[in-house]
Write a structure and sequence with these properties.
Elements lengths: L12 E6 L6 H17 L1 E2 L2 E2 L1 E7 L3 E7 L7 H18 L8 E6 L2 E6 H9 L8 E3 L6 H7 L1 E3 L10
Antiparallel strand pairs: 1-5, 2-3, 4-5, 6-7, 8-9
């Protein structure tokens, strides 16, 4: 059951999928259509999930589930990953590669491979103060508090 994203509780489980490039307005419109259809029918063991999504910064797809009524299951997670894979293929984007880093460079959001990011650290092109997106957060509460943080306060700190 699709509900407004901002009506989900703080402990709702989330998954963040960063795109390797900024999405165009027409792509976002089509992705909205696809995700609305998917989440409206998303279920676990034939029980509807109370869920939502949002697209942030024209780049991040965030899926969320309120697990108070029905917990997600392996099969329901697999279904969401299959939906994300279809979006990857349809729009020729990379959403599932966890070996990438997304961070702010001034007013821009940059997406680099982990190896490129490490190289940028060595070259001092990024610092411990660089704002990174910690896409490993698990709840809306963590997302609000710890998604955009200085690299020194995230798992990226090991590179400095």
């Amino acid at each position: 059951m699709l509900i407004p994203f901002d009506s989900l509780p703080e402990d709702a489980r989330i998954w963040i999928y960063p795109s390797n490039r900024k999405l165009a307005d027409h792509e976002i419109a089509e992705i909205n259509t696809e995700l609305t259809a998917f989440i409206s029918n998303w279920s676990a063991h034939s029980n509807p999930l109370t869920a939502s999504y949002t697209i942030m910064h024209d780049r991040f797809i965030i899926l969320a589930v309120n697990q108070e009524n029905q917990a997600v299951t392996g099969c329901s997670i697999d279904a969401s990953v299959a939906c994300i894979q279809q979006l990857e293929q349809r729009f020729q984007i990379d959403l599932l590669d966890k070996m990438n880093v997304t961070f702010r460079q001034g007013e821009y959001i940059t997406h680099k491979s982990l190896l490129e990011f490490k190289k940028m650290v060595k070259e001092k092109s990024v610092s411990a103060n660089t704002i990174v997106f910690n896409n490993l957060v698990n709840t809306i509460e963590e997302w609000k508090a710890c998604w955009e943080v200085p690299a020194s306060e995230s798992w990226h700190s090991r590179f400095f």
